[in-house]
């Protein structure tokens, strides 16, 4: 049993948001056949004390608080000509922690989860390096820049340019660079020309996300549900656009329709939506499955999305009919059991049709769950990791 150093930009347990879900399942998969030494940041005080599940899965853990503010990170980035995505996660204590693990443990492989942590790769190491970018973050900032104006446009374009150069440099060094979908991997290959790039998709725990395992927490019908981290910009923009452009059209045909925005840390813009007719903002909930079970329709109207959306897989696993933007549906092999919409009228029409025919909506949800069970088990998705982490034959 070899030893792996696992670098994560966010504590992977509990798996209660998209990046932590992938991080936890990858770590747990690696722990089955390796001793895993975790070095990670925490941005939630509750995560500073490792849960028993994480302790059991890891040989050692170093969890550091990440308290650097955005203003300081941007100032450091401008002063050092680096991307602020990196300066936000730059900490001397993390460098010391990584050096300590490498000095005391026979590390055979380093698994880097997210590009922000690639700055901690040692300059000289014989360990095999697997770089899990998950998404192409530089492309996301390029999208942001295209929608911004004034100084913010310049800052975001700068970030996209510098971050892409950094990503390409890291990929050149890594033994394998991973992305969550083939579309994302192809985009990275085209933009950087990097070698050894491949896709390893996200999975879903269909035993946990099982419609028989959760009771609906809301009796309101018809109910539209969106789930996600609600201080994350793409989610904020998605629910704002939906509440303002789509929901009024739906309520013209179905006056009793309600839109539940379910997720922790709602931004002020999101909280303000609760003042609109039919909008409910829950904040953090103990178990999102109850809201998914209550949903007549789940929506994912993201305009900026990278890779595979866990929220869509979770809703499909819960046998819910889903209406998603083309961006949110990208990379998901849904085999026709997912409605894809773009314009507000398209969203409103698809949702209204599902409301009008509950029996058909139920059939679509059942097909969605079957598709997820067949295609998106975590064991099947992560099986290629084992070969990637083996040393090349001597």
Automatic annotation (TrEMBL):
Pfam families: Glyco_trans_1_4 (PF13692), Glyco_transf_4 (PF13439). InterPro entries: Glyco_trans_4-like_N, Sugar_tfrase_PEP-CTERM_Stp1. It comes from the Bacteria. NCBIfam families: stp1. Residues 25-207 form the Glycosyltransferase subfamily 4-like N-terminal domain. This is TIGR03087 family PEP-CTERM/XrtA system glycosyltransferase.
